[in-house]
Each structure stands twice: as C-alpha cells, then as structure tokens.
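User: Could you check the structure of this?
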Amino acid sequence: MKITKLLERDLYQLEEFFKVVISDTAQKEGITIPGFVDEEVEEKMELCRKYFKEDNNISILIAMDGSRIIGTISSSYCNLDIKSVIKDLEEDAVKIGAVYIHPSCQRRGIAKLLLTSMCRILKSKDIKEFYLDSGYKSAQIYWRQQFGEPFFIAKEYWGPEADNMIWKVKV
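Assistant: Sure, the predicted structure tokens are below.
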C-alpha cells in the first residue's frame, strides 16, 4: 500500500470508490434519505475538481493498493458544517475531511496512515491545528478513540438523534 497525492487520472476511479464507500456507510448507518449517496458523492467530487482547477488550500491524498484506491483524506478551509456552529472560527481555519476507507480494507490502520501523511502536509504549510467533523456514528466512535471527546457537538444537526461532532486537533 502507498499514500500518494490525488492525480487527475484517478478521478473516475475515485468517483466509483466514493459510491461504494458512501453506499456502504449509508446502509450501515441506516440512512434512507432519497438521493443521499448521490449528493454526498457529488459533494466529494466537486472538492476534487476544485483541487485541480483552482489555486487554493485543498490537499487530497489517496491510499493505493496496487492500482486500486482503498482510502482518501482531504484538507481544506472549513465549510458551513463547521462555520455555522463555531462562531469564533478563524477565516483560514482548516478542516480534515473525506476520510473514507474501502469497506474491505477497514480496521487495518489505513485511516491513521492517511491522517499522519496529511498532518505532515499541514505542518509543512505551518498549520498548527485542524478541525474534523463527523455525523456518522461509526466514524464518531473511531474519532473519539483517536482524539478523545469532541470540541463541540451540534445536537441533531443532521436530524433527530443525528449529531455532528467536531474535534479541534493540534497538528
């Protein structure tokens, strides 16, 4: 397995990867909102298209097993999911997002390797902290194990009994 920057030639495979992983996550989380998977995939792909089109602060890494994408992670400026609930957020605050691991490869330490690699990039940009948010209950368990209790919990942000947890992490 190797961790590498996303290349434009990877976009088609990445979109298929997101469809598989987000469908699996939605099924495991019991999410039955019509169009949910397609909207989430499109949101992630839009970030990836911006990565190649604009001079911005987006970084995207992928984990590869041979020629197959098995994991992703991104960093960018915080989006509305964080900005709308943390009022004193600095304009250039950074978010870690799009942390997805293929269902057949989960619990192998891939997310931790991706996070470590992304932290190296953030350090090289002299970024001292980042935010990470999660609405998926299974991911919230993982992030609690990694970072402890969340910095902020937006109660029922995604709907009844669907909190958005936000961690503030030193790089």
